[in-house]
Amino acid sequence: MREHGEHGAGGYTGGGAGVTRRHVLGIGGALGLLAATGLTTSAALARRPAITGAELRSEVPLPPPFQVPLPLPAVLKPVATSGGVDRYEITQREVSAEILPGIRTPLWTYEGSFPGPTIESRRGRPVTVRHRNELPVPTVVHLHGGRTPAASDGYPTDLVLPGGWPKESHRHGHGMRDPRAVVSELTRDYTFPLDQRPALLWYHDHRMDFTAPAIWRGLAGLHVVRDDAEDALGLPAGPRELPLMIADRAFAADGGLAYPSLDPTLRARPGVREEYFAGVLGDVILVNGAPWPVHEVDAARHRLRVLNASNARHYELEAVTDDGRSLDLVQIGADQGLLEAPVTHRVLPIAPAERHDLIIDFAGVPIGGRVRIVNRLGSGRTRDVMAFLVARGAADDSRVPRTLSTDLPFWRREDAVRVRDLAFRAGRTHSGRGWLIDGLPFDPARADVTTRLGDVEVWRLVADLHHPVHLHLVGFRVLSRGGSPPLPHDAGLKDTVSLRPGESVEIITRFDGYRGRYLFHCHNAEHEDMGMMANLEIV
């Protein structure tokens, strides 16, 4: 990492179903070229399709699209609401469920369902969630997008051990120990103050070295924060507000989830088989845990709260009627809540861990008509995501105000007390090939970035391949891409930004909220497990 003093500025210039071994070797060759020639080569890579990884092929018959009804995750009820705090309990346990029609699939779940149950919160009203680990391995829970004290942020070594797990055997990958780890047995209470803008957050496993396979097996759920100002806007609500967790998976011959772990028990050796080094893609697109689902809607505006919960797959979403028309996707919010004003898209990219808050108006679609959500980056079966069937006419008193929010933070470049350069690239780790931040693999014992509480900083991020970069604790704004203005989908307050191959992105944030040890990392979950994570110390 290069760090600059006061008021620095500037920037760099610079899967589908057909993924084959040659494509994977092409990625490897590109990485070698990057090492040799730097960003001139990676500028050429930026024009390659948005596939980073290799695709697993399912070994069971797959259902036709748009047959399975869209499930809506259950909303979890608190076990207590006294003292101004809502208290919840979630048990992490293994279940067998029907994802593909007629086929049973073992899953690791929060409270027996995939996705896990949704938690609904009010801004500024704290929540405590007691997690109980009845799975066969240690777990960690991270509330992604939460402004959370470090003790409850889900640091990757703050393990919750299952019953009977040897207390001293939680040495991490490559034999590393973390002297600051806070390990608990069987249960742990996570406290979330939720003193933050209303937004769609999500919770998922964050155990060091094994995040990717744990999420793949089902450890993900939604957490919605609301407030009175958002409620008063008149946006579509009730049954016309739909959470949509998009995730790709692949299925083995026995109906289980296929995943190329080097150690399928997830107990000892981290990582995936060599051909999946760049990321794991599935050939089945799930929405809320159902394959290519369909949902009946009124001919009215709907609010779609979209999360890309895939390990490595990027999407470009488009809403297409059966007669070939594209409907507007009106973006009203980003990762960290409402935009200042709506932004209209026809095609909208979404990287792993990003969230888009969208309005789509079905009023112009004839009754009985269908609107497909397609993935322009997919091919074959991964080109379809889901469909809406316009079932009936209806009155619609919702609206999309021209001004959505007036409370977004605004930081000027000249407010920054320092500028940091951070490179996200493939390289050598302790155990072989991996993914590095500034040439180093993750080490919990090393402070990578130290900043003062309240400091404003500009970070200049540069990538070799696709890297969706996530900062814990804080939201940020995108200042530039490749030396040019941000793209339309970069609007608002983000916590995850998608870097394309060879691209540089500048972000600005204020490190406020809490002191302590946090993380920033690539949210391609395989990259994260293979070293692309770093410590952020706020002092």
Structural account:
Helices cover 7% and strands 39% of the residues. It has a domain at 2-51 and 408-538: Cupredoxins -  blue copper proteins (Immunoglobulin-like, Sandwich). It contains five helices and 36 strands. The model is unreliable at 6-49 (pLDDT under 50). The protein starts with a strand and ends with a strand. The strands form eight sheets. Strands 16-15-13-18-24-21-22 form a seven-stranded mixed sheet, with no helix packed on it. Strands 1, 27, 28, 30, 32 and 34 form a six-stranded mixed sheet that branches. Strands 17, 19, 20, 23, 25 and 26 form a six-stranded mixed sheet that branches. The chain has 539 residues and is mainly beta. α1 (21-37) packs antiparallel against α2 (39-45).
Identify the CATH class of one domain. Mainly Beta
Q: Any idea what the radius of gyration is?
A: 22 Å
Which architecture of one domain does the CATH hierarchy give at level 2? Sandwich
Q: Could you give the count of β-strands?
A: 36
Gist?
It contains five helices and 36 strands. With 539 residues, it is mainly beta.
Key features?
539 residues; mainly beta; Immunoglobulin-like; six-stranded mixed β-sheet; 5 helices; 7% helix
How is this fold's topology laid out?
Elements: E1 2-4, H1 21-37, H2 39-45, E2 54-55, E3 86-98, E4 104-110, E5 116-122, E6 127-133, E7 141-144, E8 160-161, E9 184-185, E10 187-192, E11 199-205, H3 211-216, E12 220-226, H4 228-231, E13 241-249, E14 280-281, E15 284-287, E16 290-291, E17 294-298, E18 301-308, E19 315-321, E20 326-327, E21 329-334, E22 337-345, E23 348-350, E24 355-361, E25 370-375, E26 384-392, E27 418-429, E28 432-437, E29 449-451, E30 456-463, E31 467-471, E32 477-481, E33 496-499, E34 504-510, E35 516-522, H5 525-529, E36 533-538
Parallel strand pairs: 2-14, 3-6, 5-12, 8-9, 13-18, 17-26, 27-30, 29-36
Antiparallel strand pairs: 1-27, 3-4, 6-10, 7-11, 11-12, 13-15, 15-16, 18-24, 19-20, 19-23, 19-25, 21-22, 21-24, 25-26, 27-28, 30-34, 31-33, 31-35, 32-34, 35-36
Helix pairs in contact: 1-2
